[in-house]
Amino acid sequence: MNNASFVSHAELADLLRRLSEQAEVWVPTRQAMTPHRPMFRPFQAGMDLDFQPMPVTSAKGVLFPQGEELLKFRKEKSLSEATVTTLLWEDPAVFRPTIVFGCRPCDARGFLVFDRAFLQGSFVDPFYKARRDKNLVVSMVCPEPDAACFCGAVGSHPADTEGSDVQMIPVKEGYVLHGLTEKGQEFLKNVENTPSQAQQEEARQVWTSAQGSVDSGASLTDDAQHFFKRFADTAFWRFHTERCLSCGVCTYLCPTCYCFTLTDETNGVHGERLRSWDACMFHHFTQEASGHNPRPTKAERFRNRVGHKFSYFPEKHGRFACCGCGRCLRHCPVGMDIRAIVRALGESEEVHD
Amino acid sequence: MNTLQSIVESIWDQVDVVLGWRVGYDPLHPVPTFVRDRKDIASLIWNPLCAPNLSVFLAKFFRTASQRDKKIGILAKGCDSRSLTALIQEGLVDRDRLLIVGLTCPGTVDPDALAAARTQSGPITAVAFANGMVEITSADGVECVPLDRVIERRCQRCRHAHPVLYDVVLHDFEPRPVPKDPFAHVEALENQSLEARKAFWLKELERCLRCYACRNACPLCVCQDHCLAESRTPKWVTQKDTVADKFLFHMIHTLHLAGRCTECGECERACPMKIPVGLLKEKTAQIAMDLWHYESGTDPGARPPLLSYDASVTGI
After folding, report:
1. Nearest to A276 among B217, B225, B241 (CB)
2. Which is it for strands B98-103 and B72-76: parallel, antiparallel or unpaired?
3. Is-contact B50 B30, C-beta < 8 A?
4. Any residues with CB less than 8 A from the CB of A261 and at least 6 apart, and which?
5. Rounded-to-integer distance, Cα B292 and Cα B315, Å
6. Do B272 and A337 touch (CB under 8 A)?
7. Which residues are CB-contacts of A161 (< 8 A; sequence separation ≥ 6)?
8. Do A34 and B36 touch (CB under 8 A)?
9. Domain regions of chain B by residue span
10. What does the buried/exposed string (b/e) look like for B139-152 if buried means 16 or more CB atoms within 10 Å of the residue's CB?
11. What is the distance in angstroms between the CA of the first residue and the CA of the last residue of chain A?
12. DSSP class of A93
């Protein structure tokens, strides 16, 4: 554990202020009206930072904004020919460097799912790439996994370093920081202090105890193998999705859900082409122009969500499209539990129609 | 003495399905369950953590072709029974398809408030209710918190803790007394200046994700897959991530519930960002009472004011 730095509680705000001069620094902050649900916001002096509870939102908007302008256009009528219109394109804004500071290890791993979707294969998403190239992730060893957490069941743990450039470990007097990548080590030049022997030792203990602090049961890998066997079992999917409200809480809070829609938002002769979050739980997600909808009910829609995360994506990319953060379950108005559904795939239980 | 299980047993032969709650992923989050097998009656629970309003499934699921003829047993707290009544009023479910098990309600628990009230931090392994106290068990031991301190905002203003419509009633809990001023929260906001109110809503709605949980958890938002929030032809609301678009959606949502909202507060409970969207609908409920002396969801035979037209009405 060499190459470590230390930042005390008292110095943290100043560090973030200095970092903000070079980059947009996204931190979990507490809002006055929702003290128990911190969310990621660009750092500003005087903010009420809170690294303790799991933030309600993931940091995914940093790399994949909820609404992103891809281009602007303007129609111009030709003076000579009344019917001719010209489309004028404007390049989108330049991308600022960003730092995600103090996310959970699960959130950091979530970005790796995005990387596969947006950067691998023959089509590289230029917008995502531009953001990702200038992005750095500082994750924090997870202080308190709760009953909805299941990173352990998707091949991770609360002290995982995968996907992080820097890992911060909470100790009594502040945070011990470890650079994990080249970028991360470069970043640590911003933090002058080194931890004492005692702080190093405390960090080691925090790390070790966090590593084993989530009880997620067995890995979901074996259960997920049964997805195709269950695919056509309509009664199974109806039974397990009956209480789903078809809202977008699960997908919008999910660090790994990356589906989007493209719309042209026009206002007179001006307009923007917008990429915005979409959710496979919504009816219109697969609505076709003909009026046909291949996923007409929530049973087909939820099946697709399970399949995408635990079967199709792993088959193609070698990992679950799920980081086990548990937000989909924790904040679902009716407690839809995707873990339980994956676990049930292989069971031979009788279901009722 | 009646228990939840004995009551459900007693109606079992008259229904095809019973909508109730069972234990969810942890003791704090009971989930809706659809009981179709007699042996599953044992899994049903009722306590102040059973927050979801089960009437949401009636217009959105039990109106489909395969479910239209099903007889439904349904557990209903006071607010839930108002939603059921409103659905009957609007012809969205037939009264004779329903067997309503009314539940006297002491208020439902706000999990965030409970987390704040705790002095211990270990994961909760059990929750029990007795004598107005919530008894929380974790690895750190047992601690008690007064239920009054941790109930949801919607329940602090509830006027119908005793169900308004039922076939049989279960009196497991003392119904919460009617508060002096049920519209105190709305009035506190309304007493502020226009600028302050605008600033309040812009700040609150700015964090809206447009996940539409508020809409989908609402038992009376019945347009289902044809909501104009997502309609592209015509397009009313853009996909832009701006507070103006979010504001517009919430205003449309509110106005479509004017004179219909039964103040169950599910919109606000379902919101992951904890935006107090219930306040908007409470205001319309207050207007309906002031203007027409109408309280939605309290009389199955009454006609909702905005579903009728009376040329003699003045003052609108």
Report:
1. B241
2. parallel
3. yes
4. A275, A276, A277, A278, B239
5. 10
6. no
7. A105, A139, A167, A178, A180
8. no
9. 112-150, 183-307
10. eeeeeebebeebbb
11. 56
12. P
What sections of chain B are H helices per DSSP? 4-11, 56-60, 78-89, 111-117, 147-150, 153-156, 184-190, 194-206, 213-216, 243-256, 266-270, 278-292
Instruction: Compute the residue count for chain B.
Output: 316
State the pTM of this model: 0.94
| Locus of tokens 């709650």 | B21
Look at residue A340 and give its three-state secondary structure. helix
Q: Do A248 and B210 touch (CB under 8 A)?
A: yes
Asked whether the bond before B234 is cis by omega within 30 degrees of 0, the reply is yes
**Per-residue pLDDT at A351:** 54
B30 neighbors B103 (Cβ within 8 angstroms): no
Q: What is the DSSP letter of B174?
A: P
Phi-psi region of B107 (alpha: psi -120 to 50; beta: other; left: phi over 0): left
Q: What is the pLDDT of residue A71?
A: 86
Average pLDDT (B153-164) is 97
Q: Given an 8 Å threshold on Cβ–Cβ distance, is A148 in contact with B25?
A: yes
Residue A132 · residue A160 · CB < 8 Å? no
The tally of CA atoms less than 13 A away on the side-chain side of residue B113 is 17
Helix (H) or strand (E) holding B309: none
- CA–CA dist A33, A48 (Å, integer): 12
- Tokens 């599910």 correspond to what residue? B266
Residue length of chain A: 353
Q: Write the pLDDT tens digit of every residue in B212-238.
A: 999 999 999 998 788 888 887 778 889
- What are the tokens at B181? 């001023």
Cβ-based contacts of A56 with chain B (< 8 Å): 272-273
For B113, nearest residue in chain A (alpha carbons): A36
CB within 8 Å: A334 and B207: no
Tell me, yes or no, if A121 comes closer than 8 A to chain B by beta carbon.
no
CA distance readout (Å), B174 to B102, B130, B149, B161: 13, 11, 16, 9
Is A210 strand, coil or helix?
helix
Contact B211 A67 (CB under 8 A): no
Q: How many CB pairs below 8 Å do chains A and B form together?
A: 119
Q: Check residue A352 and give its pLDDT.
A: 47
Residue A1: the pLDDT is: 44
Residue B316's pLDDT band (cuts 50, 70, 90): low
Instruction: Outline where DSSP puts E strands in chain A.
Output: 4-8, 24-29, 39-42, 67-77, 85-90, 98-103, 135-140, 166-171, 174-179, 260-267, 270-277
Domain ranges (residues) in chain A: 4-346
Find the radius of gyration of the CA atoms of chain A: 23
Q: Mean pLDDT per segment of 10 residues, for chain A of length 353 residues?
A: 85 96 96 86 94 94 94 77 66 86 97 96 94 98 92 96 98 97 95 95 96 86 94 95 96 98 89 94 92 94 98 96 97 97 84 50
Search chain A and give the residue with CA nearest B37. Answer: A352
Residue A260, SS3 per DSSP: strand
> What does the pLDDT look like over B98-127, one tens digit per residue?
999 999 999 999 999 998 899 988 889 999
